[in-house]
Amino acid sequence: MTVRKQDGKRGGDIITRAQYSDFDLKVDFRITKGANSGIKYFFTKYEKGGWLGLEYHPDGKLGRDGNRLEGGLYDMFPTSAKKVNPIGEWNQARIVAKGSKVTHYLNGKKILTFDRSSQLYKETWQLSKYKNCQPMFGDVEKGHILLQDHGDVVSFKNVKIRKLK
Fold it and tell me: What letters, b where the CB count within 10 A reaches 16 and e where it falls short, cover 77-95?
């Protein structure tokens, strides 16, 4: 799958029909220089805040405290990723969600683990751009998975979602 801007037309987000709670998601991604995209999960409509989802951030743009680096939880938690393949080469994202615990992997290495019910998560949420959404950002049982289109050339392939018991 490729999401791209072509001849001034947007490709659009790719979103699952099904919603997921406990899952193991693997997806290969490739970005171009300056591209902006994300892999959103627990994507749903909030009472206050609109359509939102937790976001595995693959593009490496810096944010508050480095929390927008490859594999981090966008605008919330930085990553420990040390090695990402260069722009234009394929990388693999993996997200495992089980109960309130979530783990991000990049190219087979665990780079971030967090608990959506922890005090640290709640404190970090209050510092994020999501602080005014209701219910609390990420405090949902299930949601869609979305491959984000920001109008830049970014490619996705080998998308695999496995429901966990």
Answer: bbbebeebeeeeeebebbb
